[in-house]
């Protein structure tokens, strides 16, 4: 009851203020309660030596990466929208929002909604210079949307659908809904050894290490920086 | 590709590792960075002022001068810098474009100088950022109009070989070209004035005969006025017919405003001639005389100011419309209120709402005739509110109209709102084309890229990779990324046109599969995906369009033949195997196709994309996929 009364009182005060402003002819422009607090989130990464020790990159490579990164994000952090825009530039034909969202969550280890340079560069060093087991670990993390250690069929379907969405509409053969489910089934057939409907990290790593194709393709980006 | 993309490309490529476990085919090889040089500083000397930037910054836009090898022409060996003999101030914006990805237009810069700089450095002005684009377009338009005005003044040069008709038209449009034209101009002006004065004087009561009321002059001197009218109308008719004859496009002339005014001016006379004897329509005849006053509009050919006024009103049509609309709304509201307020008082003039309209209009325009006056207190209050609001509503659109008039007066121009819309549409379509160009560039380079990969594989490692002029390292990396995506999802990008085509064709039709010329491409034949690409090379001995149904069975046989081929041959899993296919085996393949009849509709691997044009084919056979067969093939080939 009292909250209603308080609200009523507040409205009344606002109304009288409004009338007073009307009568005295003051301009409406400076509303104190609508002041925008400029939230300038500025973030500085750790220094170069520390990053060098944490990652497999050389000093020059880190410099190059950071210069490019800072140019794009002067504030020092990447948020999800920027990520989405970047991916939209890379894959203009399709809809990259969902994939960017999954990728963002995979990169964002501490789940604080923004990516700092360290998070990016650590993951990058794993992906480009790490062992195959680390790479597979990262991939598993990507597919495991709720990060519970299992990949269920739904999670796989969502991930695969987002990857297919990157292609867009003008593809051949025309994408059918069944195709993605088919792909999911094939994946589970391959990876789910004990056929319990979920894929755990060990099953995943085991199966991938046995597959020559996958091992081969994990190495193709090794010279990306 | 935009600058932003370049910085993020390593991240996107690294993230592509996430596709690897779910892909069923091996990935294409990454483009190699042959010249892996350290990022170096480049010095750009622009008329003495030195700018320095990283090489990679300039490489972001490979289709501009600074981003391509074209800048090598400006390299100065002694000082080890690039020298450009251009304006350093304008160069600042150009270089900032490379740094930030956004092109800005500085306000102090002359528009044509800026355009020249952009053209020199190979940057299209359409990518000017939204913050500066409006300014840029306005300045450009002003400039263009000014130039066009200068040109129009030189338009009166008499061309040789103008025939009589063209001369006449020129004389009509521009009286200063010859003496005859000038004489004609003044004569018609004089007669328009005479005609208007006649119309006016006709109605003046002049001299009363003793036992009669005042008669207007028109009825007193009927004959004189009739002669005057006839003379004027004859002159106007002759003038109209001459203009009609001389007009280059008669249809357009007849639709123009001035000719309509001419017609309306002379028509009542002729109609009057025809209908004088009928008493019933004499009322209508009198009404027609009103239209004679339109003759005064003929003066607009003689007066620049009248024309400008006309243009102003036309260009402010929306403001005038708004004024009218808001006035109408206010009138209705206040009339209703006044009517109900005054209903109570006796002997009130406000008999109905439409009757109150008159009061409202007179009050809102602050005329205040006083023939209708509110008597109740409520009526008076609302009446005062009405007059106050009238002032406001009428005063609001007036400054817009005034500024419009002054602008038109100073520049003497046509309606530019229409042109602004067209420019916006053109700009958007250009940007869209540039965006589509990137995806088309990918499809284009796929065809080129495979040649390169082939050369890379078969040829010597030391040979320089023949990269086409337009594909930079960044672009090739971007294309490689898209290629990986295709492989992961086992679908392919096509143009939009081809996609439309495929949608309309019968999906059940099959099409000829790989041709013997497989060997010329990277051997994905030995590796299998679950789908087959439709971009297959047409069989050399078949024509796609006519023999579709015939191909059906043949196609299937081919498929299965290649299946068997796959199973039989020990596949090395990579490209080398296909390269070792002899020509003999190729023809054997074909022969075998005719003999074997199998029922397996299995889908072998996609052939690599052709480098010579695209095979238009109908899409895949429907999803009667025997997945077990394909997975077997996968296992076998992955030795």
From TrEMBL, chain A:
InterPro entries: EF-hand-dom_pair (IPR011992), EF_Hand_1_Ca_BS (IPR018247), EF_hand_dom (IPR002048), Recoverin (IPR028846). Keywords: Calcium, Cell membrane, Cytoplasm, Ion channel, Ion transport, Lipoprotein, Membrane, Metal-binding, Myristate, Peroxisome, Phosphoprotein, Potassium, Potassium channel, Potassium transport, Repeat, Transport, Voltage-gated channel. It comes from the Eukaryota. GO terms for cellular component: peroxisome; voltage-gated potassium channel complex. The keyword NAD does not apply. Residues 95-130, 131-166, 179-214 form the EF-hand domain. Transmembrane segments: none annotated. GO terms for molecular function: calcium ion binding; potassium channel activity; potassium channel regulator activity. Its main location: membrane. The keyword Transmembrane helix does not apply. SMART domains: EFh. It is a peripheral membrane protein. It is found in: Cell membrane; Cytoplasm; Peroxisome. GO terms for biological process: regulation of potassium ion transmembrane transport. PANTHER family: CALCIUM BINDING PROTEINS, KV CHANNEL-INTERACTING PROTEIN 4. May be involved in the calcium-dependent regulation of rhodopsin phosphorylation. Binds three calcium ions. Belongs to the recoverin family. This is Kv channel-interacting protein 4. It comes from Triplophysa rosa (Cave loach).
């Amino acid at each position: 009851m009292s909250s209603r009364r308080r609200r009523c009182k507040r409205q009344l005060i606002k109304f009288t203020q409004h009338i007073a402003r009307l009568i005295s002819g003051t301009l409406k422009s400076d509303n104190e309660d609508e002041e925008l607090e400029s939230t300038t989130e500025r973030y500085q990464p750790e220094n170069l030596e520390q990053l060098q020790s944490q990652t497999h990159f050389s000093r020059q490579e880190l410099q190059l990466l950071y210069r490019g990164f800072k140019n794009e994000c002067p504030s020092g952090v990447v948020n999800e929208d920027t990520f989405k825009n970047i991916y939209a530039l890379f894959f203009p034909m399709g809809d990259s929002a969902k994939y960017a969202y999954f990728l963002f969550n995979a990169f964002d280890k501490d789940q604080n909604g923004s990516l700092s340079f360290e998070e990016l560069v650590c993951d990058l060093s794993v992906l480009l210079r790490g062992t195959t087991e680390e790479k597979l670990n990262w991939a598993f993390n990507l597919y495991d949307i709720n990060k519970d250690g299992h990949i269920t069929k739904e999670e796989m379907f969502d991930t695969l659908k987002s990857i297919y969405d990157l292609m867009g509409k003008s593809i051949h053969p025309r994408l059918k809904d069944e195709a993605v489910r088919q792909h999911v089934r094939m994946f589970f057939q391959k990876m789910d050894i004990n056929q319990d409907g979920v894929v755990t990290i060990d099953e995943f790593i085991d199966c991938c290490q046995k597959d020559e194709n996958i091992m081969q393709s994990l190495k193709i980006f090794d010279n990306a920086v | 590709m935009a600058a932003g993309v370049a910085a993020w490309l390593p991240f996107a490529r690294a993230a592509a590792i996430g596709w690897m476990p779910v892909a069923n085919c091996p990935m294409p090889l990454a483009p190699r960075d042959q010249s892996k040089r350290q990022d170096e500083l480049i010095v750009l000397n622009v008329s003495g002022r030195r700018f320095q930037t990283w090489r990679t910054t300039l490489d972001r836009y490979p289709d501009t001068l600074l981003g391509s090898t074209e800048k090598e022409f400006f390299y100065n060996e002694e000082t080890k810098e690039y020298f450009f003999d251009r304006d350093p101030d304008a160069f600042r914006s150009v270089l900032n474009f490379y740094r930030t990805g956004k092109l800005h237009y500085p306000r102090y810069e002359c528009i044509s100088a800026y355009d020249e700089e952009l053209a020199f450095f190979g940057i299209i002005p359409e990518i000017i950022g939204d913050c500066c684009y409006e300014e840029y377009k306005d300045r450009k338009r002003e400039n263009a109009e000014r130039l066009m005005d200068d040109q129009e003044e030189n338009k009166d040069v008499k061309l040789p070989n103008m025939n009589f008709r063209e001369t006449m038209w020129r004389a009509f449009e521009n009286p200063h070209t010859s003496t005859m034209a000038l004489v004609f101009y003044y004569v018609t002006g004089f007669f328009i004035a005479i005609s208007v004065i006649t119309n006016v004087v006709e109605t003046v009561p002049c001299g009363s005969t003793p036992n009669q009321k005042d008669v207007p002059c028109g009825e007193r001197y009927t004959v004189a006025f009739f002669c005057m009218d006839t003379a004027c109308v004859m002159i106007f008719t002759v003038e109209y017919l001459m203009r009609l004859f001389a007009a280059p496009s008669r249809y357009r002339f007849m639709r123009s405003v001035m000719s309509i005014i001419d017609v309306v001016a002379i028509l009542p006379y002729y109609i009057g001639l025809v209908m004088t004897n009928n008493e019933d329509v004499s009322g209508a005849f009198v009404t027609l005389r009103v239209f004679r006053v339109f003759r005064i509009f003929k003066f607009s050919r003689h007066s620049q100011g009248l024309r400008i006024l006309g243009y102003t009103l036309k260009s402010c049509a929306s403001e005038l419309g708004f004024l009218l609309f808001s006035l109408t709304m206010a009138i209705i509201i206040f009339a209703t209120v006044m009517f109900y307020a005054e209903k109570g008082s006796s002997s009130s003039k406000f008999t109905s709402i439409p009757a109150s309209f008159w009061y409202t209009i007179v009050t809102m325009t602050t005329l205040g005739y006083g023939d209708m006056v509110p008597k109740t207190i409520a009526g008076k209050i609302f009446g005062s509110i009405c007059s106050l609001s009238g002032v406001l509503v009428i005063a609001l659109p007036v400054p817009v109209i005034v500024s419009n008039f002054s602008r038109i007066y100073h520049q003497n121009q046509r309606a530019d709102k229409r042109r602004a819309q067209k420019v916006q549409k053109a700009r958007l379509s250009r940007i869209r084309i540039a965006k589509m160009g990137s995806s088309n560039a990918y499809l284009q380079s796929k065809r080129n890229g495979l040649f390169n990969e082939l050369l890379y594989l078969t040829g010597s490692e030391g040979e320089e990779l023949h990269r086409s002029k337009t594909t930079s390292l960044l672009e090739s990396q971007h294309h490689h990324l898209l290629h990986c995506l295709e492989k992961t999802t086992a679908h392919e990008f096509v143009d939009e046109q081809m996609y439309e085509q495929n949608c309309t064709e019968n999906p059940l039709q099959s099409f000829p599969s790989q041709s013997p010329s497989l060997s010329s491409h990277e051997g994905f034949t030995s590796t299998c995906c679950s789908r087959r690409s439709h971009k297959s090379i047409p069989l050399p001995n078949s024509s796609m369009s006519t023999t579709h149904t015939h191909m059906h069975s043949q196609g299937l046989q081919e498929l299965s033949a290649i299946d068997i081929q796959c199973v039989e041959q020990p596949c090395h899993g990579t490209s080398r195997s296909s390269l070792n296919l002899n020509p003999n085996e190729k023809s054997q393949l074909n022969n075998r196709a005719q003999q074997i009849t199998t029922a397996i509709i299995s889908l072998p691997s996609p052939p690599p994309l052709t480098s010579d044009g695209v095979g238009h084919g109908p899409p895949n056979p429907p999803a009667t996929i025997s997945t077990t067969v394909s997975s077997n093939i996968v296992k076998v080939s992955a030795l």
